[in-house]
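Table 4 source record.
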Amino acid sequence: MEVIVHDPKSQNAQEELQINAAKIYADFILDYINRLPYPVEQKCALMKSVCEQCARLIVTP
């Protein structure tokens, strides 16, 4: 199988790609947590923990 990848050329296109990739990843995480066989309260606690971890990783200029 041959795969050709075209990277975005402009800064705006690169940022848009990063945002879209982050949204897809976040949707995956939420779907994964929702499928876990745990009570709703435990899932909410897990989602809160994930959000807190992500907030610590955000670097603002």
